[in-house]
Amino acid sequence: MIAEFGLAALWLAAALAALQLVAGALALTPRGTALAAIVRPVAMVQGMLVALSFAALITLFAQTDLSVELVAKNSHSMKPLIYKISGTWGNHEGSMLLWVMVMGLSGSFVAAVERRLPEPTMLATLAGQAFVSLGFYAFLLISSNPFTRLSSPAIEGAGLNPLLQDPGLAFHPPPLYIGYVGLSVAFSFAIGALITREVGPAFARAMRPWVLGAWIFLTLGITAGSYWAYYELGWGGWWFWDPVENASLMPWLAATALLHSVSVLAARNALRAWTVMLGVVAFSMSMVGTFLVRSGILTSVHAFAVDPERGSFILGLLALNIGGALVLFGLRASSVTEGERFTATSRESALVFNNVMLSAILGIVLVGTLYPLLAEALGAKVSVGPPYFNPVGAIFAVPMLLVLAVGPLLRWRRDSLSRIKLQIAIPAVLLMGTLIWAASQSVGVLPALGLALAAALAVASLLPLRGRKLRQVKLPVWGMVTAHFGIAVALLGMASDAAFTTERLVAVRAGQAVDVGPWQVTLQRIEPVAGPNWTALRGDLAVSYKGGAVTELHPAARTFWAPPNETNEAALKTRWNGQLYAVLGQATGDGRWQLRLWWKPFVPMIWYGGILIALGGLLALFGRLSSDLRRLVARDKIAFRRARQGR
Amino acid sequence: MSEQKPAARWSLWLPLAVFVGFIGLVMVGLYRPADREVASTMIGKPLPEFALRAAVADRPGLTRADLADGKPRLLNIFASWCVPCAVEAPQLATLKGQGIEIAGVAIRDRPEDVANFLARHGNPFTRIGADDRSIVQLGIGSSGVPETFVIDGKGTIRYQHIGEIRPEHVALLREKLKEAGQ
Description:
heterodimer, A: alpha+beta, 6-stranded antiparallel β-sheet, 4-stranded antiparallel β-sheet, 18 helices, 63% helix, B: alpha/beta, 5-stranded mixed β-sheet, 6 helices, 7 strands, elongated
């Protein structure tokens, strides 16, 4: 029953999306204005229905209902409950349902609370949201139905990929999806504004919280995903330029640019067409990423069940959604009138520069991700990795970070560098000092630049607070400072990892000690342990930092039996100044065991930085929402007073 | 960028043009027959000149001359870090058991890792050269590990097998070796 209920809810939601599209579009015509009243309620009910459908799927997974094909293929009765639930989105169909649910819920959220947009723009926005949703409903119902029953129930499920049986998986996809599907709101806003030609500060102020919200989740999702890859894959790296990682990074880059350009539009009524363009691009990148991952066109560690039919279907959706939006942009953007002017040295210019650099990095990541395809079309076979992304990305990231240090100190419209030269001097001196020091440490060029920029930016990001009464600093400013400081922190972690990591690969007997960096690691014994659906060989390591107190670490090699697979569970010891990372390898056959050890100074800063960046977004979001709320309350008071006086 | 000028009309269509290019590109990738293998352009050509140091202590290294002494051989490109290489180990052992001589080239590997790998999976090789910078690998037109080449007695590459040798490939390789000996 639950499966049938879920499927029925999904079909109903799809039907309501169709109604929302038609009613929204007709309501924009002079004869259909009566339909306007139903658009918001329909959007809300549609979101609720798709959420119910998703809840049904979670229930099926939690109960391990093996008469449902998807559950039988991806779950197992012996799995711990948390992985039964996370198994819901650990497969193609389930994750697409999560995608559609986030889309439906964002639409209903917008319908429920957004009151600042002019009504026609709002109707066009909701119609746009319904248009995009409808394509994805069709995709789910036609080629990826998660509720298909088996003709006879399976006796046991096939299990979930052991790599995914980890709290990191349970937690990283949902925020990531909220992030990049949440960007669909920005996309629909852009469509709505293009249709009604209402692009201005009011539009930007309405759009900003939605972009901020999605961006916060995206930031958290990427941070969590990166940490998951770091400790679960056991390779000691935290970013692999894998197509799936790129698929999450590209919308983030676009959303970051959008976040800044929307602020320019809100504050200064400039960058109109550009902001609308970024609104289209951000969610387009989410869709392109989904296509690249799901179609199997690129090989990736995140291999989903690959199916050319699905690939063609998503490609069709892409062509329709993105192509349609870009045609609309080409037709309408020229009538979006020019915004306010500004001089070369101004806050706007710094933000424009940052936008261009972010877009360039986005382009580089996109080209790098597609390069294997491009080369194949031309007859060569190559893959690109860190040797391409890191230096080429740095060409644009370095100037961007330099401007990032200065930009927030500049005034809107017109300013001069000489006014802030004393403030710039401090980070500039730090930058040069760190560079010289790094050169003396024979660190590579990129890590040295990274360290220097991190030091300069850490100080520079705090300068906008200088000379202000901290209590009176507004929340969005705190948000900006926190997020920029977070970038410095994350950069420090990345550069330090690249510059100072020490690695040892050794074969040791029980009782033998190894040094890695300032740590001494002793293998005490290897012992077998058993979990709910795995057995493991666990190494007991005694570790001590610079001869200090001894603590234990337990890296393990796990063997899962459903499906049969082996994973390496890395063990981590975190100190304030870095992380010791231990992986247990194979037995060498002569009583010794392979151990792979890394000492990674300051590496956790990467993820602390990510959290700070998201926190900055959260502060800004609260600040914007509370001031919007105050404005609304004030407006209502005035309206109330007027009404009373009129009486 | 001192002043914002109204964007030229054609530039507004630029994003669409880029997107159409993208769609075209992925259509090519999506609908082309999946040919993920790279055949060597060196088949039928003589091996390039090379001399590799020994990859492990108990087997000699490998030079071109070792592969041109009149006897056809298999040349197996492998690495200790490569999982399919472990998968094909039993098949290599079978081939060795049938009296076939196999030379190995270890790609970007450490002596202790190679020794561990061979201890675990068996050592079918008479000689193993260490190709630390993939020079020989690239020279003979191999794009990955594992790959296995049939070399005739004169040092000419006669056949290339891409990917791990599965049990069903053993007979084919033996056949190709026999052809190379004629």
